[in-house]
């Protein structure tokens, strides 16, 4: 039945059309598939091989092996990666030996691997990197963290974990955060340890800190060797220990430290990422191990909690070693190689090897160097690796311009109890923070010290307060403190036959400050100098800088060249250079009565006397007969009235309201001026006036006379170097007697014109000589006295705080009063430079009030006169005879308003003007008729 239907179906037009469409579609599909299979088979090999190098029997190796195996299986099971190509792997055990690792690497390269994963050891990586450079096989190291491996010397070395460069800068930020200044580095003496600690030293230097002691030990050192090493380190004053060792031997350090009682309060232990890797690998935690690490702070690679990581952790086989960060980096290294190879193939690359003519088999040698092949596409594959960017189980996998893994970050852990707690993070994007780095990456970069923050830490000994970070060394040696052996001014500093061997103001300040410290300080005073001459203080400070003394205590001035080589405490005494010179009593001048006022004051006062006299005359002239008469008499009246008000003896009475107002204000001004003049003149005539021909440092610089300075003082260098005074003019003086004698003799008799010395010495000198001399000019330098310590000594900081406490409590002043009781005398010589004379500045307000009153009175007066004058000359054409007033005067019209008429009008008496205005007002109606 079916056979009969088929021809009929083919005979139909619809059936033929359907079969034609099926044929047209089917044939191209077969062609495309066939062509695709041909492409895969022609450019992509059926299998490729990667190699792996690490120490199997190690903490890192035991976690890396299953991670690499899992990564290879996951790549082969993913159809999107290397389709049609199987990824194989070969693992060689380096056995933690540079020699064995080199041999294993040579054997590995005989298998024509296109990439090598590992090694875990930085030392082996240095050796193998030369081999992969020659064969152009990229080396992806998941555990070699030596910062020097990133150099251009190893172009085929690509690190898939973070360099120790970043870890050391994280530790430096922690040291700065807790305000420590010195650390002790404990490290294994190989490429990994040395180069990491070298970077730590550079990072600390940028934070004004340093490594005070490097405790290096050989790989595989015994406990006795480590014990000797820690005993030596414990003699150093620093108590901040940074441990940078291998995970397999690091716990031995803490075991020995525990036995030496170095894990108690006051100690700080910071471990690099080896310690969290070790603890993550031993699950569950060993109680004995955790007991060794109580209070330790450690850094661990920060792995973001992504879904990819959570899936990987959940699939981790329970039979494998504990999962640590290096296992995650090893896993991602395989995926990096697979993804890069897939891109490499897609861009037309191929896996091929060729012989290197330089690698030839040597006769009689079992080394088959001729079997090594160069990866032809190695350079291109390396560039492909560096361009990769994806998210793996360890976070973002990508490389910066320096071939470092991007986004370096660390968790900061505080170990306590049976585990650890995270106290914060560190990243090169934000420094120390309690916020996860991936959250801060969305914000602008900010590593300011103000924004650094960590949670509280429980330090060794279960102490929550931040340790000071240093103590006095446990070597039984007290501090060597140099004390200048002065031969003068022993009130400040001098030898003492009884302990402690020195006494004086400076010694008491130092001992009082030491007593305020929260820890004991042992020290010995050592006199510096022969006792015959006061030593040069700059040489003493140099001795401290050269470690011949631990500190110098005394009247040491803080100057620039000294601060470059030592650290000073907070100044405990203000100081500065002044000039002291002989003085003589100034002779009284016959013109001393003019001194109270300046020239400007005399001129303005005289002008106001005349002004007020003129104003009062104008205001009184129309009302008061005493202010009328011939011109010469009126001029004398003005002058007499003006200056008689100085003594309140004016006989003329004022009758006008405006005149009385001006006079009252002026008399008040005169009262103030008289009182001030009397007080100033009394002071000038009764107070003893002293003078000196030396007016200050400028006078000394411009002269050629000899200048006295204290022996050992910094003033010699200051006068010569800063003020360019010839050395031949300077004369060194030993004590107060020489000061006095030199000033009394003067420059003409072998003495000096003046002495330049620090203010505290001059105050004492003037007091001891009953104020026979005076300081002239102003203090021309500002400085202070402080105690000198070696650079970066933490004791300088603590003593500075103690000195401030002494000052605030008043104890510093009590010590000053005990040793430096001075006679009361005027220190500064009053120079007659006009500054003490009364000037116009002190009285311009009074003159302003008086002048304003005169102006207002005159304004009101002339306004009244103008109003009267207008009424006295009404508008119109009629003329008014004034024969009743003065029959001898000619007739004139009221419209003639010349200046002469106005002056004549003003000169009339007020009573006459009022009478004429009254008559004009009464006559006004009749004239209009």
From TrEMBL:
Pfam families: ANF_receptor, Lig_chan, Lig_chan-Glu_bd. Keywords: Disulfide bond, Glycoprotein, Ion channel, Ion transport, Ligand-gated ion channel, Membrane, Receptor, Signal, Transmembrane, Transmembrane helix, Transport. Residues 480-822 form the Ionotropic glutamate receptor C-terminal domain. Its main location: membrane. InterPro entries: ANF_lig-bd_rcpt, GABAb_receptor_plant_PBP1, Glu/Gly-bd, Ionotropic_Glu_rcpt, Iontro_rcpt_C, Iontropic_Glu_rcpt_pln, Peripla_BP_I. Glutamate-gated receptor that probably acts as non-selective cation channel. It comes from Acer negundo. The chain crosses the membrane at residues 599-619, 661-685, 843-863. SUPFAM superfamilies: Periplasmic binding protein-like I, Periplasmic binding protein-like II. GO terms for molecular function: ligand-gated monoatomic ion channel activity. SMART domains: PBPe (SM00079). One of its GO terms (biological process) is signal transduction. This is Glutamate receptor. One of its GO terms (cellular component) is membrane. The keyword Cell membrane does not apply. It is a multi-pass membrane protein. It is found in: Membrane. Belongs to the glutamate-gated ion channel (TC 1.A.10.1) family. Disulfide bonds join 771-825.
